[in-house]
Amino acid sequence: MTEVLNPVQKIWQEQPVEGVKMSVEEIRRRAGKFERRIVWRNRREIVACMIVSVLFAYFLATNHDGLFRMAYGLFIAGMIWVAVQLHRKGSVNSLPAALGAASSLRFFRAELERQRDVVRNVWPWYLAPLVPGYVMLTIAYAVSFPRPVRWLGVAAFDGFVVLVFLGVWKLNQRAARCLQRSIDDLYAAESSR
Amino acid sequence: MSALENVSAIEAIPAASTADELYQDAAKTYGAALERLARAYEADADLRRDLLQDIHVALWRSFQGFDGRCSARTWVYRVAHNVGASHVVRQRRTRTQALVGLEELENLADANSGQPAADRNQALDRLLNLIQRLNPLDRHVILSYLEGLDAASIGEITGLSAGNVATKIHRIKNVLARQFQQGGESHD
Fold first, then answer.
1. Where would you tag: which of A124, A160, A167, B111 has the fewest CB atoms within 10 A of its CB?
2. Pairs across A and B, CB distance < 8 A
């Protein structure tokens, strides 16, 4: 810091600041709030899964058609799987206490790798578990209402759902590739001397 | 309260107060630098206030794991930039402009290039626009340079090799020279 500052460094360092000060008590309060926010966010997603599962359990209990019951059962199993995945990844976003121990390069790379894994795993973790239930529900509709017009409607809707799933998968794969390029650049930056 | 609990409580107080003291010292010494840093990572005033508070919380928490293997300055800048980088990664979906590296920035045509800034505020705005276009790692390097850190310190904080830091600083000087008509590489 003993170097003579050039004009741009002077402009930067002499910019007006508000002089924000936080007492340790305020910091503790905010840290507690932050932790609660993380816990609540994780719970919220799991609670949403549980609500949907309860709804499907109601359909399961009130419907007497075996195929429909099987479809709802598969949906419930899928939602439980999603909830388990959410619970397992839940603690990842909390601020690590040893944040200063990692160099920026390694920390940033780890952040990008985490993002890449989330994006890459949207399909196997969150979409694929719901597919068996959906397929079974489609079969149940097709069998229960064996009129060609109804079949056409079901097929059109299925086509639309398949397109949406494919679109989500393609977008996520593209995002994962972009993130991977940035990760590779960071590995190269670390290894080059 | 049992004797064991008493011992734990007595031992916990000095450790906690040390972390608190370390935080207070750091906030006093680097408070202004942290504000400037938050400004470089977030343009929106409300989000910036939140980010700055997140940086302070992270800093306070991090001092519980501070082992003195690096200087407090290195630690503070690492924590602050790491929180800033996380913020940038989180804002990825809402960003309208793609982030670039110094190399791309050096080659990008810019409407302001060669135009002298009317005053310090305009120069600062221009500088902030430039910084906010950079990816987090290069943003870290340019901010460290603007804060007056030497190449060795920048290398220690970022984890970049000395050669890499030297190349990046060279590029930073070229970009700033083009933006602010400082006479390029002669300016050191």
1. B111
2. 155
Q: Select from A113, A37, A101, A49 the least CA-distant residue to B75.
A: A101
Q: Coil, strand, or helix at residue B18?
A: helix
Task: Point out the domain boundary residue: B26, B61, B94.
Answer: B94
This complex has an ipTM of 0.79
Q: Which of B94, B116, B147 is the last residue of a domain?
A: B94
B146 with A12: Cβ contact below 8 A? yes
pTM: 0.71
Interface of A with B in 93-132 (CB under 8 A): 95, 97-108, 111-112, 115
Q: How far apart are CA B50 and CA A20, in angstroms?
A: 12
- As a whole number of angstroms, the distance between CA B75 and CA A22 comes to 19
Q: Are residues B111 and B77 in the same domain?
A: no
* Contacts B31 to A, Cβ<8 Å: 17, 19-21
Give tens-digit pLDDT for B24-74. 999 999 999 999 999 999 999 999 999 999 999 999 988 888 888 888 899
Instruction: Give the range of the structural domain holding residue B139, as residue numbers without chain letter.
Output: 102-186
Residue B109 and residue B32 share a domain: no
Element spanning B139, H or E = helix B136-146
Q: Which residue has the tokens 């926010």?
A: A37
pLDDT tens, residue by residue, A97-126? 567 777 888 888 888 888 888 888 877 888
Q: Name chain A contacts of B129, Cβ cutoff 8 Å.
A: none
